[in-house]
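Pasting as-is:
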Amino acid sequence: MNALADDTFLNRRIQVRQSRSGYRFSIDAVILACHIAPYAEGTVLDLGTGCGIIPLILAYQNLNVRIYGIEIQEGLADIAGINVKENCMEDRITILCRDMKTLRRDMIPNPTDLVVSNPPYRKIRSGRINPNQERAIARHEIRATLSDVVETARRMLSLSGKFVTVYPAERMTDMLTEMRSAGIEPKFLRMIHSGRNTQAKLILVEGVRGGRPGIKIAPPLVIRHEDGSYTDEVSEMFGSEM
């Protein structure tokens, strides 16, 4: 395992260990987790959990939720397991080192109500691939494509269950097309902008398995003010510690 750095989150209420040289979670995962935290309940599946930051936030915010974090990279799965143990959340979070493409419903004890994923953003032949294998697999579609992620969500979700993801705005058409083709109807969309006068960098998307057509477009989320500081909404996601 790579050397680990000790970080804290939500005003030191969550302890997070991350690789010093490998993949580290970004604000994308925080935005995704904080978006779903108010209504997450039942059984939640996090596809590509990394160090486990999304399950940690959800378990902190929701005492009754049961979360399964799926991670194909053994090193990251080990780190996620450490984070779960050190935050005393073993009763609510289970980390499975597994290829999501092999998941079956009978591998999870309860029906899955919510699937969440911060998936690899780039196609395998798109852009420079990071020489660090851990980062490369997390950022490029090397071990799992967008189609793999959406198909796994469809396969695991109960009827009317939700799939929620954050994805590059430039690939919005890819995401919405894959979701509808898999029978997960897009129902909510929010654009995420680095600054007030910048183009959208990311999208936050919700879909419902077997849902009816009809999508709501939320007001945009702006990450930073012109002076570089976080906006009030984003600061609140970090527990006002930034």
